[in-house]
Automatic annotation (TrEMBL), chain A:
It comes from Metalysinibacillus jejuensis. Gene3D superfamilies: P-loop containing nucleotide triphosphate hydrolases (3.40.50.300). This is ABC transporter ATP-binding protein. It comes from the Bacteria. Belongs to the ABC transporter superfamily. One of its GO terms (biological process) is L-amino acid transport. Keywords: Amino-acid transport, ATP-binding, Nucleotide-binding, Transport.
TrEMBL record, chain B:
It is found in: Cell membrane. GO terms for molecular function: L-isoleucine transmembrane transporter activity; L-leucine transmembrane transporter activity; L-phenylalanine transmembrane transporter activity; L-valine transmembrane transporter activity. This is Branched-chain amino acid ABC transporter permease. Belongs to the binding-protein-dependent transport system permease family. LivHM subfamily. It comes from the Bacteria. It comes from Metalysinibacillus jejuensis. It is a multi-pass membrane protein.
Length: 235, 291
């Protein structure tokens, strides 16, 4: 579904990704784990068109999307839930969800998906008229995910959904990620919480200073000594 | 009942400031630029209205509409030519450019028609009517109703329409807006178009009210509208409306008390006071974002 082939990406003058390649197949949950500053968010920003690769190709459903503007990538079916949620704090929950469906014109489909988002996140329904800046961190994460789902993506990019959340909320969010995946959305999940990420993923990549250093099934990586030592708390 | 009279005069003059201030505040909200050329868009609007009424014999409302449309296009051209390429440069560079654009517009108009005054044609007669013992000019009422009508329309656009929601999204977080599929460039252009059309409308009603227009007429009202925007809280749309009207009322009161020579100074004293004591403006709050 998504093939990233040997890309170089610069963040200002700093090279953040160095010849990175990876693949996501339809229906999978693929996770990308790595420490702070490894280049995880840079990769997602490149996939969603906020950054342009200097070199290399990105192919999505057989078409090149490298360097295309963000709106045509959203239109093609890739939604990105950014790090730190980035909800529109000055707007209500419902207005945020409406903006998620910005490029869609099928009113009936939008209404149906809104209903569906409220089923996935009943908390958002309770707070639909509330300013989203007043939500808790977990609720904002739900809103950011709901907003991305409103675009009806085929591929969902999630950047650190567990960041700053209480353990119970993290569990809740991850079980919803699994539900979304079972409903047919492919997921590329970037996480520092390697334990949680590997527990729901099919396959995983380990990123270090802009390069993939390890890849394999999530199960294999969970058992790998290197990953255990570096990312799973040395257990 | 003289105070009602003064209040209504103040509000109607203030509504002209408010219309201009809206453009300042919207543009600031979306690209954090104080567009000092905005007062000159107002001037161009006044001249378009003048030619439409005096030379092409259009009626007042047709001239108003024409000025709004042409100013909208003019605003977008200014943005695309001068500001767009500076979006990632320092704010001071963009600010200096705005001052340059302002001078360019003023002297281009002087180049083509000279710097002399022009008298606005009397398309609508100013009658005085008495309400509750207060003598109120019909022009004041016309100005007030046109301004309030436009402000309601603007609120509707910003709150309810798709482009309005896109404008709010971009002004809050441009990258997050991109991730929604919003075309940020087009949204910024739309903001310039709407703000400039309001300035154009302000130019035409200013001409009707003050009857004298010239190529430098945008400077002082532009600065005052900027003060109005700061007073209300820059970047906040209702703030610009209230700030403008408040400024108009203060000026009228200062004049009515016999200090008409101090009228302009009053506005700048307000600016200094607001910057010292409440720099975020009446409606501004120091919004802290939750992470």
């Amino acid at each position: 579904m998504l093939i990233v082939n040997d890309i170089d990406v610069y963040y200002g003058n700093i090279q953040a990704l160095k010849g990175l390649s990876l693949e996501v197949n339809e229906g999978e949950i693929v996770t990308l784990i790595g420490a702070n500053g490894a280049g995880k968010s840079t990769l997602l920003q490149t996939l969603s068109g906020l950054l342009k690769p200097k070199r290399g190709g990105i192919e999505y459903l057989g078409e090149s999307i490298a360097g295309k503007p963000a709106q045509s990538i959203v239109k093609a079916g890739i939604s990105h839930v950014p790090e730190g949620r980035r909800v529109f704090a000055n707007m209500s929950v419902e207005e945020n969800l409406d903006l998620g469906a910005y490029l869609r014109k099928d009113r009936d489909g939008i209404a149906k998906d809104l209903q569906h988002v409220y089923e996935l996140f009943p908390r958002l329904y309770e707070r639909r008229k509330q300013q989203s800046g007043t939500l808790s961190g977990g609720e904002q994460q739900m809103l950011a995910m709901g907003r991305a789902i409103m675009a009806k993506p085929k591929l969902l990019l999630l950047d650190e959904p567990s960041m700053g959340l209480a353990p119970l909320m993290v569990k809740n969010i991850f079980s919803i990620i699994e539900t979304i995946n079972q409903e047919g959305t492919t997921i590329l999940l970037v996480e520092q919480n390697a334990n949680m990420a590997l527990s729901i993923a099919n396959r995983a990549y380990v990123l270090e200073t802009g390069k993939i250093v390890l890849s394999g099934t999530a199960k294999a990586l969970q058992e790998s000594e290197e990953v255990k030592a570096a990312y799973l708390g040395g257990l | 009942m003289e105070w009602i009279q003064q209040l209504i005069n103040g509000i109607s003059i203030g509504s002209i400031y408010a219309l201009i201030a809206l453009g300042y505040t919207m543009v600031y909200g979306i690209i954090k630029l104080i567009n000092f050329a905005h007062g000159d868009v107002f001037m161009v609007g006044a001249f378009i209205g003048f030619y439409a009424i005096a030379k092409w014999e259009m009626n007042f409302f047709a001239a108003l509409l024409l000025a709004m449309m042409l100013c909208a296009v003019f605003g977008v051209i200014i943005e695309r030519v001068a500001y767009k390429r500076l979006r990632n440069s320092t704010r001071i560079a963009a600010l200096i450019t705005a001052i340059g654009v302002s001078l360019l517009i003023e002297y281009t108009v002087v180049f083509f028609r000279g710097a002399q005054l022009e008298s606005y044609p009397k398309t609508i007669e100013n009658k005085t009517i008495t309400i509750l013992g207060a003598q109120i000019g019909t022009h004041s009422i016309l100005i007030l109703s046109v301004s309030i009508g436009l402000m309601i329309l603007l609120q509707f656009i910003v709150q309810k329409t798709k482009i309005g929601k896109a404008m709010r999204a971009v002004s809050h977080d441009a990258d997050a807006a991109r991730l929604m599929g919003i075309n940020v460039d087009n949204t910024i252009s739309a903001t310039f178009a709407i703000g400039s059309s309001l300035a154009g409308a302000a130019g035409v009603i200013f001409g009707l009210y003050y009857t004298k227009i010239d190529p430098f007429m945008g400077v002082i009202p532009g600065l005052k509208a900027f003060i109005a925007a700061v007073l209300g809280g820059i970047g906040i749309i209702p703030g610009a409306m209230v700030g403008g009207m408040l400024l108009g009322v203060v000026e009228t009161v200062v004049s009515a008390l016999g200090f008409s020579l101090w009228r302009d100074a009053a506005a700048f004293i307000i600016l200094i006071l607001i910057l010292v004591f409440k720099p975020e403006g009446i409606f501004g709050k120091n919004a802290r974002e939750k992470v």
